[in-house]
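Why this split exists: single-chain examples teach little about how molecules sit against one another. For that reason, every record in the complexes split bundles all components of an assembly together and asks for one structure covering all of them. Below is a record exactly as it appears in the raw files.
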Amino acid sequence: MLKIGEIGWIEKDRPECGPRDAIVRPIALAPCTSDVHTVWEGAIGDRHNMILGHEAIGVVDEVGNEVKDFKPGDRVIVPAITPDWDSEAVERGFPSQSGGALGGWKFSNFKDGVFGEYFHVNLADNNLAILPEGMSLEAAVMIPDMLSTGFMGAENAAIEIGSTVAVLGIGAVGLCGVAGARLRGAGRIFAVGTRPKSVEVAKKYGATDIVSYKDGSTVDQILEATDGAGVDAVIISGGGPDIIIDALNIAKPGAKISNNNYYGSGLGEKDTIPLCRVGWGFGMAQKDIVTGLCPGGRVRMERLSDIVTHGRMDPSLMATHVYKGWDKLEEALLLMREKPRDLIKPVVLLE
Amino acid sequence: MLKIGEIGWIEKDRPECGPRDAIVRPIALAPCTSDVHTVWEGAIGDRHNMILGHEAIGVVDEVGNEVKDFKPGDRVIVPAITPDWDSEAVERGFPSQSGGALGGWKFSNFKDGVFGEYFHVNLADNNLAILPEGMSLEAAVMIPDMLSTGFMGAENAAIEIGSTVAVLGIGAVGLCGVAGARLRGAGRIFAVGTRPKSVEVAKKYGATDIVSYKDGSTVDQILEATDGAGVDAVIISGGGPDIIIDALNIAKPGAKISNNNYYGSGLGEKDTIPLCRVGWGFGMAQKDIVTGLCPGGRVRMERLSDIVTHGRMDPSLMATHVYKGWDKLEEALLLMREKPRDLIKPVVLLE
Amino acid sequence: MLKIGEIGWIEKDRPECGPRDAIVRPIALAPCTSDVHTVWEGAIGDRHNMILGHEAIGVVDEVGNEVKDFKPGDRVIVPAITPDWDSEAVERGFPSQSGGALGGWKFSNFKDGVFGEYFHVNLADNNLAILPEGMSLEAAVMIPDMLSTGFMGAENAAIEIGSTVAVLGIGAVGLCGVAGARLRGAGRIFAVGTRPKSVEVAKKYGATDIVSYKDGSTVDQILEATDGAGVDAVIISGGGPDIIIDALNIAKPGAKISNNNYYGSGLGEKDTIPLCRVGWGFGMAQKDIVTGLCPGGRVRMERLSDIVTHGRMDPSLMATHVYKGWDKLEEALLLMREKPRDLIKPVVLLE
Amino acid sequence: MLKIGEIGWIEKDRPECGPRDAIVRPIALAPCTSDVHTVWEGAIGDRHNMILGHEAIGVVDEVGNEVKDFKPGDRVIVPAITPDWDSEAVERGFPSQSGGALGGWKFSNFKDGVFGEYFHVNLADNNLAILPEGMSLEAAVMIPDMLSTGFMGAENAAIEIGSTVAVLGIGAVGLCGVAGARLRGAGRIFAVGTRPKSVEVAKKYGATDIVSYKDGSTVDQILEATDGAGVDAVIISGGGPDIIIDALNIAKPGAKISNNNYYGSGLGEKDTIPLCRVGWGFGMAQKDIVTGLCPGGRVRMERLSDIVTHGRMDPSLMATHVYKGWDKLEEALLLMREKPRDLIKPVVLLE
């Protein structure tokens, strides 16, 4: 990213490695919708000459002298979010917010991202995880953000065994919301979306009902399918600034609204995200709105890696477009911007 | 309430008592701001010839033949919210939502309220609690709604021992939010309000800092007082439809916004309650918005009664205006509408 | 059950139906290990001429005049635990303990069980659930106790997505513990047991590692397989009075020990269940011991039914021995006592 | 501590300060019962020439070059437990268990304690907290262990507003359990103990009922006082290896047993801590046993410090014996061993 609206290649010095840090060379990368937001919508504000990217699998190239568990040559999963684990927010229980709101998100936000020849990882022992032998790179590169964010949507939704869940939006994060809902024990799962490839994968990940806006109001369809009762939990992973209104209108009293959206823009002069007063039960129907930022760190990566290793879900189904070589990265990023109908997620392999 | 905007006395038949129900004669009553909303703002829609009121202490006059634990002559605390305990919402864990959103709220909503010579209580064994000997009626009549709702605000706020809490609004519910925050272990408590009597009681209930809009932006004042950090929890108990914006702007990442407001009106054509996109951390800063409706039922009343009995807080401090006799009830209700500056809560004693 | 150690058939009056109750005629039954405990070990104390059984699918024969949602002819799932939903324990949040410790367990404990021509169900609207069309009786009859209890073991274990879990004992409840662990998102699952049929089903339900005491200490095997770290959660569903010692010794600091055992006997004169002081971290290693009694009620049954309907797990794999007709019930019960190596669960179909 | 059973003064080199660490000079110290366990009972195993003590207020003497928030001369509260915040256990949510079971407990366990001229604190920015101006040293020195451990007992007990709580044992930790129960909203609080000074402080901290074993079985007394119902939560902070039996016998179904005891010895050859099978509801009455180790770290210390600053409780009431000067430290430690009846806690001031 050269500036808002403009991308290109840039020569930069190799980052320096602190005593507890690592320098990593990527071997698989995936562009993310939020990279698109960052560049073309300026969602996080202006950035100049910042390297993009926060989804990577890599090889450790260098470690600081206090790093104990990793050494050059180790193949590693790098979380999109790399908290400062020795920070106040961690003591309070919110690692993703270390150093301030969303402060755990460093790559392509506060510092250069992973789309470079080498990139810097803070607190290597706390933030890297060994890539298990035999795991495909296409699967592994979904772990740092897609699985971690998508599953978070389900984890925050207070799903109980047999709960009925609706997932609004089935891009890659939404698909992981579907898979996450199944992993937490959901019974019936409504997936709201229309793109054929996404629909196909949503079913494989556990969706029992596909709802398309082409068939009318999605709210009406879900209410009708549940005899007017609505659902026990809603996971938002798509839609515009007013999507919470739909979520509230399909939620039973007591249902949780779990937000996975990054709201890059709001409504009106005051830049707001609206709740519907009546659907929200006048603020008293226990339809709580729960939020989060992709959990990062080593333990998270190891646990998600175990999910893949033990066959609990197969992330490689989302890698619809696989490229090889650095020269394809720009194409992959532009693809993410264009979003052809058969795209879920592009991946670029570098070895 | 005769219709929206009009109150008066009306002759009605004594309610019938089902096998598990009770008929109760009030001995202490308190009008509530929501009665004012109901009559003069039509907040819950039109109601004709409906008896108002949901805050009462009474004497049992009659019980159904399946009632085991109460008998005529028992002096009882009657919760504002009387759930159908044998309902689906209870099995899901949300008694106040039994029978649909806010369905546990029956008095002066789905049926006649407590401002009558006799009133009906469903599921007596589950919803009534014995008034302890020696408890003053002025204190007791605050339990059914003020304490239960106000404390709920604190209970929903994920307060930990030593948390810093802000309470927005210090009417009677807000004051109980302050007391509730202290009861859950808050350290520093900001109380936002200006009415002198409320300020005085807020301090007695545990407020350490009083913030007045007269001294400038309350958001700025609280941020300044916390060196920019904000607070660990916010309890909303007052303000207009856009009060959540203030709440989000003073909340640390990870802080919970606990709503005690009944939003009788929203903003704009779409009737919405706005969140501020940036203050909310773009939907990712873990500033969750938690809601509820006054918990009801016998166990709740017994527990709150224990709080009063054991001197954990003194609700009678809120009874600023005490009247005697049925003929004073209208005056008390009108007082609640006028809100003179020395008013917290009027009480009408009937014996 | 005629008395401790003696079973037989007995003529009894048809039970009476209260206004909110139902009389149900069974169409599928399953004997439970706890029936065996009750009769031959006298685990719950002496009982005379009490009808056994608490796992049934049936047809509604009669309903009380206050029952709204069920009518004669409805095919229903009957939970093993039928709480008094309008009781104090429900208000406190513990339906299975309604009316005192384990008070929600009525069938073949406080009243006649389901192994009769007709049986009584309290609070029909709250405790029955419609049997979905197309669900096999062999699958359905596992829901009332096996699924509900087994899944509870996982629900109580604070499993997070990717947690490593050990399930001690793989009878039918333990197998449902395995399935429940997967439903809550476990990654690696150790199943401890040796019976070949159980091992086969454990793998289908999600076990990744089978541990047999025949290969040495199960504690040592699990510690070795986890490089000494131990597991994030332990579900106890088998073993003698000192099984918690094993559980503590394989638990990481912070891991939860979730107990599904019914301890029919203890150790020593004082009839105790021992914890190991050192393995427990001297009472400070956050290895909490969490317990429960099979959740009952309509919502639970409906949710578990959804799990089966949507193919999240197939309970019929556990129905290793299927009989037809009342005259086979005794044989099925005796089979449960003998436990041949290819048995998981016998089922008796009555239509 | 020279070896088990023997204490004395020893000359040691000043500890070295790592880049993120601090060297602190104590200005107030308190000996702890666990120091007594360590020396005279060998509870944590043999230790040679190890400096005792883990309760201190001090002045920073030196900081490493990566420390940002503290500088020499700062007066600080030093937590008894100083976790390695950048460790795997923290990522899992269990800081006190960092580096293995109880691994956050370093002072006088894995390294020299605070009873030295200078002592070493790991991760200064994460573990130290500024001593507020105006707070007395007698009050402050109770924060590092007594308040943090005692309050934890209440925090782990799932106390709700109005819960009835029993605290077994009212030494300093038990007294903080009483205060903690009040801080979490308990209504009625039973304090079990006999020492007159402790009884006096227990009442000031919120105990409503004092129970003495001299008046008969404490279990019987508490059951009688609650009409046989028992209590909603039990905090164990005293008693021998079989104290959990008492706790289970006074617990309602669903009540939590929160353990604050350090079990230095167990029963029988197998060194076990016994649960009573029947009182525990055969492992099914939802009487969960919850454990913990004193929470440490900077945020915890700051929050507890706020509790004192804002007058939520006054820890100085426990400082029954205040000494001045290093030469009194041995006397204070021996006093802790002897436990005269008017002792709660000795404090030694060093400036």
